[in-house]
Design goal:
Shape: globular
Number of helices: 2
Oligomer: single chain
Mean pLDDT: 74
Radius of gyration: 15 Å
Helix content: 10-25%
Length: 199
């Protein structure tokens, strides 16, 4: 599977290197309980909307997050329930849970932000890494978390984005590093379905 994120320096997004630790093989049933179980970005992961926000959200306005990922596509990563709509305030969201009763559940979430771009993404204590999708021009920001979650923010335009979040990976199961491996796999499925980046 291709590596989704290429590391770059903040000042020069064009110079890219493969980001170590963010691609890997699949491991069915490798996930474990989530602390928050919300499938939404950790608190503080998004700041106030960018002042350059597009009034109608541009390409983001037409996206249904539950159509960006299917239960069947997730089967290569693990067993999941069908996606459920789970909006975050006015932002469309969708969440996929491991089956009820799973001893080691994981949560996958997708949220579409029509008026918040990559510049509005905040780090959550473990830093953030800007880059580009491997083999493409879409900008992306990786936001790992020390609590076993990882988020990739994918640019739609300078003022809109789609977030892919994986939560629930305990330290014993690989913690944030494993969460980013799964996020990388999910992002590789989702990213080709997004409109070409604007601007």
């Amino acid at each position: 599977m291709r590596t989704v994120l290429r590391r770059t320096t903040p000042s020069l997004l064009a110079a890219a290197l493969v980001l170590a630790g963010c691609s890997g093989g699949t491991e069915k049933g490798s996930a474990v309980p989530s602390d928050n179980g919300t499938g939404q970005p950790p608190s503080g992961s998004t700041s106030a909307p960018s002042e350059t926000g597009t009034p109608n959200g541009g390409a983001a306005a037409s996206l249904d997050p539950c159509q960006l990922l299917s239960q069947g596509e997730l089967a290569s990563i693990g067993e999941f329930e069908p996606g459920e709509r789970d909006d975050l305030a006015e932002y469309p969201g969708c969440i996929w849970y491991s089956p009820k009763g799973d001893r080691d559940p994981v949560t996958v979430g997708i949220t579409v932000y029509a008026d918040r771009g990559l510049a509005d993404v905040n780090e959550t204590g473990a830093g953030k890494t800007p880059g580009k999708v491997s083999g493409g021009e879409r900008k992306i920001v990786k936001v790992p978390d020390d609590l076993g979650s990882c988020m990739y923010a994918l640019e739609l335009s300078p003022s809109s984005r789609v977030d892919v979040l994986v939560t629930g990976i305990t330290e014993a199961r690989g913690g944030g590093e494993r969460a980013c491996q799964i996020t990388d796999q999910v992002t590789a499925i989702v990213e080709p379905k997004l409109p070409e980046p604007e601007g």
